[in-house]
Amino acid sequence: MPTYPYQDAEPTYANSYLWPTLRGVVEKHTWPKRRAFDLGCGNGATCNMLSTLGFEATGVDTSESGVANGQKTYPHAKLAVGSAYDDLPSQYGTFPLVVSLEVIEHCTDPHAFAKSFLGLIAPGGIGFLSTPYHGYLKNLALAVTGKMDRHFTALWPGGHVKFFSMATLGQLLNEAGAKNIGFIRVGRIPPLAKSMVAVVQNVG
To answer: Could you give the number of structural domains in the chain?
Structure first.
């Protein structure tokens, strides 16, 4: 399966509109233990950002170049090569905060991904999962402006293979065992949002 080749450990463009929302969620909660897990950590930039908020951050990604760049640039973060299809809760335990930014849309088995993601959230913890947003008005705008081929390109190695609406992502997470899910749309105005965030609370 193709993985991203990372040349550095700089934040990506998506971080510019995802991180402020993530910080907002963090600020609204009390954290007895500031430990976080980044599922699909890429080059470790988000783990580093979380460390600036006082979290001890751990992350895994399938990209060897991403993990290598992250380990070199952010030695305080615990980064390793790994997959959402691994038994991550058995390997790493659970965390008060679990983050996954723009990853699930690349996964051929989103049910396995969702199971790993939810399994990493400690009782009372929070999960923060983002993926590109798809809704009626946005899809209509893509069609009217002739940008469907560009948006849903089949020519991007390692690109998007799943496309979620709030309804389908909510159903997926519910089927995987999530009980308390809220959604936030980010980037642009809500009907044309770039991405959506599912905030999952483990009330167990």
So the answer is: 1
